[in-house]
Amino acid sequence: MATLAFRIPPSSQAEQKQIATIHRMLLLDGTAVLVGPDNTRVNLPSPLYDVLVKVVSTLEYGKGLSIIPQMEQLSTQTAANMLGVCRQFFVKEIEAGKVPCHYVGSHRRVYLKDVLDYGKERQSKRRASIRRMAQEANDAGLYDKFVPIDED
Fold it and tell me: 76: buried, middle or exposed (CB in 10 Å: 19+, 13-18, 0-12)?
């Protein structure tokens, strides 16, 4: 099966101006409409509109982006790179049952959707831990306390 992933590179200076105009138009109140070559008008459904706004917003800042289906199969190395962790750590997370995987031959593969879900959950737990530690420090009266460094 051929992949559906594709890259949208950063645009030229002239295209940047057009993209900025399109972004402003998309942010106006109302419904976005697609007009076909025969002047047929179709209102854009909300999910498609949201994706279009995100794409145009990203391109307006001169950033490239990739669009990948959520069910795209990724290698463990690619998934680890996306999460900013080493492959060995990611494989241990798979083996612990935290990320579902399947095998293609003898190689593990994960779906992009599962990697994104795992990343969100991991970030949520990290934020909760930071909030908890800050609360504990605040409750102990240490949050705003200045502790001088001993210079022996």
Answer: buried
